[in-house]
Write a structure and sequence with these properties.
It is a single chain. By secondary structure, this protein is of the alpha+beta class. It has two domains: 262 residues, Aminopeptidase; 186 residues, Alpha-Beta Plaits (2-Layer Sandwich). Helix content is 31%, strand content 27%. The protein is built from eleven helices and 24 strands. A hairpin with a 3-residue loop joins strand 1 and strand 2. Helix 4 packs across helix 11. Keywords: Dipeptidase, Hydrolase, Metal-binding, Metalloprotease, Protease, Zinc. One of its GO terms (biological process) is L-arginine biosynthetic process. It comes from Anaeromicrobium sediminis.
Length: 454
């Protein structure tokens, strides 16, 4: 039986499994007994392992930090690196984020594209290979990470204890094959506040790698009419209300992945630009002015001293994801994706040339070095061969700002699931995967595995 025909036969099962795994809310939570990332993530891992077991794969749960399903024999191992955790769902979904409802041949839900839908696709690609009778002279192992969105503790736990694949791809980015990923910095901009100020609280965002869709500020002696007039004049959705002499101002935006801030609308930045119009001269007002002048609505870090770019991977990306001010400290959490030919010290040095003037500290919270693989690398060439044959698209391999599990080991790259021109909905409300898209990428992953088995 041809591989495409086998995938077609499995269509209803692929859809059903995708819906079932989406219905498990697997946002990282506090440890719960032997579940390091909470019950939801643990339930999702057990679901994936059970599905693999039902297909006759060899499986292992790695202490609830990770797991894998495996087929085949031999010393060489082809890895498929997926993750089962998802970012928080946010607000204002058209369809419930954990019901996996189908509308217009699209499955809606958190994780449909990032990364549960691709994980199910890869499991069924392995099943199709297993059922096809193709000689399995290498092993194929799908590795389930559980903490990709907030620290990689799960995949790192796996790598410290289990066998590392000979080669691998991760379906957690874009097609065609990705031969470079920008470096990632996460840090806090921290300003100590020593005096009582007119703004008493600012809060917004969920995580540094998400464009925030909500932010609020508590401001003393602020006329509500001024707030609404600003919103009307600038075509911005704002809510406001009074609590005694304090006005609570609420700004709304559009969530998006932190590597693509231009796809969203940053509620924190819009709020800070508004607050700067109040001309406050106290310590918080000075920080707000710094934010407006040196960050503002920019995506590329040019005003804060790190607007770098290279021909290999393009411009640096600068995303403010979280702000938290109460009591005596303002903390702004930032996610930066920097070009593959730069070192991280150049990024920090550029920013410090600006922030030192304002007595603002930069505190690093996470770092991933960039990765880069030549376009003529054997793994890239073989994945590109399958992609071109299946799509008729002869474009070249690409580089991205996103950070995938390809960084976690040697000889690994990202490959799909988004096709060129498709809207990036990871980390956004109304995330979905089209059923035709799900089936097409399953065919590509099946044929990619067949190619890598040769």
């Amino acid at each position: 039986m041809r591989l495409e025909e086998r995938i077609t036969d499995l269509k209803e099962d692929i859809i059903k499994s995708t819906q079932e795994i989406i219905r498990i809310k697997s946002v990282k939570a506090e440890p719960d007994g032997d579940m390091p990332f909470g019950k939801g993530v643990n339930d999702c891992l057990n679901y994936a392992l059970s599905l693999c077991e039902s297909f006759g794969f060899k499986t292992k749960n790695v202490d609830n930090y990770a797991g894998y399903g495996e087929i085949g024999e031999g010393s060489e191992m082809i890895g498929i690196l997926v993750h089962l955790d998802v970012v928080p769902e946010g607000d204002n979904w058209t369809y419930p984020p954990y019901e996996a409802k189908i509308h217009d041949d699209k499955i809606y839900g958190r994780g449909t594209i990032d990364d549960k839908g691709p994980a199910i696709s890869a499991i069924y690609a392995m099943k199709a290979i297993k059922d096809s009778g193709i000689p399995l002279n290498k092993r194929i192992r799908i590795i389930f990470g559980t903490d990709e969105e907030s620290g990689w503790e799960g995949i790192n736990y796996y790598l410290e204890r289990e066998e590392v694949p000979t080669m691998a791809f991760t379906p957690d980015a874009d097609f065609p094959a990705i031969h470079g990923e920008k470096g990632i910095l996460m840090f806090d901009l921290v300003k100590k506040i020593n005096r009582e100020c007119r703004v008493t609280k600012i809060k917004g965002g969920n995580r540094p790698n998400m464009v925030p869709d909500y932010a609020e500020a508590h401001v003393k002696d602020l006329d509500l009419n001024l707030v609404y007039e600003y919103g009307k004049n600038n075509n911005i959705k704002i809510d406001a209300g009074k609590e005694g002499d304090t006005t609570i101002v609420k700004f709304y935006g559009v969530s998006a992945h932190g590597s693509l801030p231009e796809s969203g609308d940053n509620a924190i930045s819009k709020l800070m630009v508004f607050l700067d119009t109040l001309d406050m001269n106290d310590e918080v007002g000075q920080f707000i002015n710094f934010y407006k002048d040196k960050i503002g609505m920019e995506y590329y870090g040019q005003s804060i001293g790190c607007g770098f770019e290279d021909k290999e991977s393009g411009k640096l990306i600068f995303n403010v994801g979280v702000i938290d001010f109460s009591d005596d400290e303002i903390k702004v959490s930032v996610n930066v994706r920097y070009p593959v030919t730069y070192e991280k010290d150049a990024i920090y040095d550029g920013m410090k040339s600006v922030t030192n003037t304002y007595d603002i500290d930069i505190v690093e919270t996470d770092y991933m070095a960039p990765i880069y693989m030549p376009k003529d690398h054997a793994l890239i060439e073989r994945l590109m061969k399958v992609y071109r044959e299946e799509t008729g698209d002869n474009r070249e391999p690409i580089t991205i700002g996103g950070g995938t599990y390809a960084r976690s080991m040697e000889n690994a790259v990202a490959f799909g699931p988004l096709f060129p021109g498709q809207v990036e909905l990871a980390h956004q409300k109304d995330e979905y995967i089209g059923i035709d898209h799900l089936m097409k990428m399953t065919v590509i992953y099946t044929k990619a595995l067949a190619e890598l088995l040769k």
